[in-house]
Amino acid sequence: MTKSEFRYAHHPEDVKKYTTQELRDHFLIPELFKKNEINLTYTMYDRYIAGGAFPVDKKISLEPIDDLKADFFLERRELGIINVGGKGKVTVDGEVYKLGHREALYVGRGNKEVTFEAADGEQPYFYLNSAPAHKAFPTKKVTRKEAEVVELGDDKYSNKRTINKLLVNSVVETCQLQMGMTELKEGNIWNTMPAHTHSRRMEVYFYFDLEEGQTISHFMGQPHETRHIFMKNHQAVISPEWSIHAGAGTSNYTFIWGMAGENLDYGDMDKVAVDELK
User: Which CATH number characterizes residue 272's domain?
Assistant: First the structure.
């Protein structure tokens, strides 16, 4: 079963007036994984879709949602999948791809049937991102060994981290979808700091591997008018193109960044010095 909800885009002047609950209602995706379901959020920011597939004891299929007005989900779209749980299987038009923990799969436009299931008695958590596609590229699995890896940050500033570029144009051909995974080292809490914006693309952050009972404060908004949303493990948040996207946790964690827009250059960003944030 595939379920979805719809989110509109927002003007930054309007967001300044939002209450805490309004911010959460419009930007937080609180529950992605429900037993034997696919749960999706369709946002008008670059028509991006983020969600989760959680097959527990049966195979589940990615069905076209009403907002797409399509005969099948990938009729005009591409799909990125990263497994943040145990071993699982993704079948794309009859071809089976086994995904282990933190492995990724790119599925190109035009594939008609995509299904998810558990494997070897383990429990997978498939995190999904999708964007409109103008061309069909081949489906490709990407392991952690095949990712482009970058080490950033410093213990002094509590932001030492490893960036794993999984579904990016230097690793796999995509139309506009880009996805990767950033791991915070133990004792480090700040991600994406110094902060930045990129007006040529939007982004979604998905937080996981957060210790039970801990929390993450995700910072958003224009650099001179920031807001925050407190988040739990396995939650995602939408970041508009005009917004910074940074977070600090009460312990270390891992997050997946996914983005879409008109530029595939990972370094396309407008940086904001930490002492300029307000």
Answer: 2.60.120.10
